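Exercise 7. Given the components listed, write out the predicted structure of the assembled complex. Treat all entries as one system.
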Amino acid sequence: MKKKFPLTPILFLLPSVFFLAVFIYIPLVQNFYNSFFDFNVFSNSKEFVGLAQIQKLFQDDVVMVSIMNNFKYAIISVIFQIFFALILASILEDKLFRKVAPTLRVIYFIPVMISISVIALLFSFIYNPQMGLLNSFLELVGLDTLTRPWLGNSTSAIYSVIAMSQWQSIGLITMLFIVAIQKIPNELYEAADIDGAGRIRKFFSVTLPQVKETMFVNLLITVTGSILVFNEPFILTNGGPGNSSMTLAVHMYQTGFSRDNMGYASTIATLTFLLSAIFALIQIKVSKTGKED
Amino acid sequence: MKKRIGCLIAVLLLTGILAACGSNSSNEAESSGDEVVIDFFHRWPNEPRKSFYDQKIKEFEEANPNVKINVDSVLNDSYKEKVRVLVSNDDLPDIFSSWSDTFAENLVSSGRIKPLTDLIESDPDWSGKIIESQYEGFTFDDTTYGIPFTIDGKAFFYNKEIFEEVGLDVPETYDEFIEVLDELQAAGYETPLVEGLTDAWAISHYMGTIFHRVVEPEILAQDYNPETAAFTDESYIKGLEIFQELTTYMGEVSTAIDHEAARNMFSAGEVPVLYMQFAEILMVEDAGDVDFGFFNFPEVTDGNGSADSLTGAPEGWMLSENAPKEAEEFLKFLTSEETAAEFTEVDGQLNAIEGGVTEENANPTSYEAYQIVLDSSETAPWFDNAVDITTADIFMRGGQDLAIGQTTPEQIIEEVQSQVAN
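Answer.
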């Protein structure tokens, strides 16, 4: 048989390409195009302003605050969601915990399944300055000096929001690590046992190298997720007080819909896209993923 | 053979997608047969007003069996955002609530709002019942785009018992007001004047009133007009300083709670003074058992503005350009004298319909407030509806920053000036 032009696989690919184009690539290009215009949701025409919006981006203090907050989000998320989740996963997969592991896995995973709006409302009660659980708890254990209006204080607001995210997301990353650990051939551990390796040694010499690929994927999810974060700060603080817990996505949303400046909002969106793309590229380069298997 | 089946499946998948995309356009044919569907959007998912409107919808549907009303509602700040999104495309609901002044003007500028001047002129029996002065905020270039319904005013509500206990009188001037707050603090009320500063609009209400007290009316009118806005007058800094001084009485808590929480604190008797709308009278009464009175924001003796203007603007209804005839009928029904009278009884907020608020159906406190609104020599619009929203946003976020000591009045004004200069 001669090699024919393979039509079938292309036909099968078309639906997904179609969806990607309509919902991702076309809006992306359109957004880039929009960032050169000045318009709002009411206006029927767009005014071309060239690079004025980009110039504005560099003079906007809020953008700087937002980027800093996004970086804080990324750094703390990497520490908690990559390192803690990996440790948590390897503990759950340890022989000692065989019996209770399934139950614990479910418990850690439950927050992932709850809608973020519900969680944010829940945490706004926890952080409530008058009757919140957190302040009541601190008073109970005699740490009165630490109590504060968590979401109403410009220094603690962003960290309170980040803390909630960690609580919610650690379950998902743990689950991904558990799957990766389960895929490690048992022979490796047996060989390590014969060589007399202890638990910690096995973690560093067997588990860690074997889950490298998953770790990279998780790192990518966490870092890009941190740069795009919107729901948590939007519901908990709406970027406030002042602009102290603003993130790029919230700033973009408010610029577009509250402050009626769609053109500038598109520019902020472009910046967000570039940032997350750059981070993803760096990570792909550094980890040289996909070349091992 | 296998390949052919594969091809077939792929083609089927594709046509499915394309068909799904195409079918959206058929949604527009809303009136199937005789039935007319009206989309109704308001901003009160909370009680008692939600039930009131649900009830009114039912009554209207019963009286007009061919009409079906789809209702949707979201709260205040979210409503502002959602309406902006809806007005930018053709999905604008047939009838929806709107604030007056700039908010209404922005909506009108989209060209998707129905002019109502003809409707008003064609049915004087109905439109004549609406207090004439309240149309102003919905009229642009001599065309009226909205029917005012609720009217409102903002005043300091104070707890009479606490004032008696501490031996205080209602302050006449701003300096006296500060003395009152100091004395309340001395009497053990650590935060005598609370406010939910996470609600940006609550800050804008304060600032609007303060600016009316301290800024010369001509300058204010000039700055409220987006074409001529400059905000170069020194009195704005004084105004912001007044706001900053007031936030020192609100406590640390204020930047972490919303207005509703603040109101509940007032209703529970924990807080002696709170800046509230007359619309909230019934809510305060329902939530607690405090004996309260109110006074307007006191005169600022060395201010250049109006000494006794009342802040408060009407809210009303608008129709979309393509609204069916039945939506007009529904609008008349919503703003009829009967609906208004019932509304006063159920909700307690005052309205602009003559005969809608009477001594019989309003509670005494609300009726007192009604007289204040009718008698006020001059009304000031809500600040966030009076100026361009970007400018208002700088003031509102700046207000939060002032309360936590992150900025100064001068910095805010500087930012506003560079914003309006652009």
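Discussion: Chain A has a mean pLDDT of 88. The interface with chain B takes residues 7-8, 11-12, 14-15, 18-19, 41-44, 127-130, 148-154, 237-238, 240-244, 254, 257-261 of chain A (CB under 8 Å).
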